[in-house]
Design a protein that fits this description.
- It comes from Endocarpon pusillum (strain Z07020 / HMAS-L-300199) (Lichen-forming fungus).
- This is Gfo/Idh/MocA-like oxidoreductase C-terminal domain-containing protein.
- This protein has 224 residues and is α+β, with helices and mostly antiparallel strands.
- The protein has a domain at 102-141.
- The chain has seven helices and eight strands, in the order αααββββββββαααα.
- Helix 4 runs antiparallel to helix 5 (173-181).
Length: 224
């Protein structure tokens, strides 16, 4: 697999008491950051972790909408056929100018009801009870710290639990990924690659066929 080819074979994970120590052992030490005395040419010559976008020559869009559509498809899981996934449309909107700084909100609409969510609660309702607002089920996820509206802390917490479960022999790597991280390494890779497909669509003022785009990317990665 291309992911295995790109994986750094020199990174070693040492068995330790806690998963946080494992992460510290496996990750390289961060380099020095820049300060007020650092020449601007030096600052702009490379990437810096935590660099403020407003202080840089960043050209990321301030307001962007990405629309994704996919057709009806059938699939099987472990050799067992599952119901078809009907055609769907998803719209992502990211905007810098908002009072909801670093907050993630969303709405999922289905044929029987919908889901509204933000960082504080998840609201699930069905259309047969739309005249009864109090009938909606509300779930409150545990509050996490750090950036991306708690996403960073939540992801690292789940990753640490997955690593710990594997080291203790409680779960296999695949089982731990499914239980705690909720995605595979390939799925995480694909979700990030999709950003580049969206940028290609924006710059080329065109519609990008994901299946063809991904096949070309895989071919390039495997040829390295």
């Amino acid at each position: 697999m291309y992911i295995e080819k790109l994986y750094d074979k020199d990174i070693k994970i040492f068995p330790c008491v806690s998963s946080s120590r494992i992460l510290r052992k496996s990750l390289p030490k961060p380099g020095p950051n820049y300060n007020v005395s650092t020449p601007r040419a030096t600052i702009e010559s490379k990437q810096w972790c935590g660099r403020c976008v407003w202080e840089s020559d960043n050209d990321v869009l301030d307001d962007q909408i990405v629309a994704l559509t996919w057709d009806d498809d059938s699939r099987s899981v472990s050799g067992k056929e599952v119901p078809d996934r009907g055609p769907n449309t998803a719209v992502f909107h990211m905007v810098a100018f908002t009072e909801a700084q670093c907050e993630q909100r969303g709405k999922i609409s289905g044929i029987h009801g919908g889901i509204h969510y933000n960082s504080k609660e998840i609201q699930v309702y069905t259309f047969d009870k739309f005249l009864q607002p109090e009938a909606a089920k509300i779930f409150t996820p545990p509050k996490t710290a750090e950036g991306h509206d708690g996403g960073n802390g939540g992801l690292m917490n789940s990753f640490s639990k997955a690593v710990e479960a594997v080291i203790k022999g409680e779960l296999s790597v695949e089982q731990a990924q499914a239980k705690y991280v909720s995605c595979t390494l390939k799925e995480a890779f694909m979700s990030h690659a999709m950003v580049f497909a969206a940028e290609e669509a924006r710059l080329g003022r065109k519609i990008v066929n994901w299946r063809n785009w991904w096949a070309k990317l895989e071919q390039r990665l495997l040829s390295r």
